[in-house]
Design brief:
Blueprint (H helix, E strand, L loop, with lengths): L3 E2 L6 E2 L6 E5 L5 E4 L1 H7 L3 H4 L14 H13 L2 E9 L5 E12 L5 E8 L3 H16 L2
Antiparallel strand pairs: 1-2, 3-4, 3-7, 5-6, 6-7
The structure holds flavin mononucleotide.
Length: 137
Amino acid sequence: MAVTKDKTSDEWYFDENEYILSETDDKGLIIYANDLFCEMAGYKLDELLGEPHNIVRHAEMPRIAFQGLWDDIQSKGFWTGIVKNRRKDGGFYWVHATAMRKIAKDGKTTYLSVRRVPRRMDVNSCISLYAELRDKE
Ligand SMILES: Cc1cc2nc3c(=O)[nH]c(=O)nc-3n(C[C@H](O)[C@H](O)[C@H](O)COP(=O)(O)O)c2cc1C
């Protein structure tokens, strides 16, 4: 598990073959995060458990992106997109995220997210798209 920081900016990277994983309860509070989530976000696991996912929300993410996430999860059961996340130390990292709803046999709902390294061209498109969307907020 190699986590690295860009030499000239506050951007952090992880490996192509690694996945940042998390699970929340039905209220959206984190009940599981893997080691890579902790490393990339810069938190210890016990600082994350019981917290909402917006603990890693970056101010440059437009509100409408997360509206879309929750709308799609409720209507289709999943959402996929490019997200800029904020680290505890103020740094940031981009992910290609797939978030989904899981309904167990007993009706208990949880939410899962699997995040992989995004394509750079997708990150570059999102940098300008998200700036435009934020300007409209
Ligand atoms: C499974 C799942 C994973 C999520 N992962 C992230 C994430 O990595 N970063 C993030 O900013 N929001 C994530 N969210 C969305 C947050 O719950 C929240 O809607 C978002 O951070 C916006 O925060 P706000 O509602 O306080 O504006 C996730 C939601 C779900 C259901």
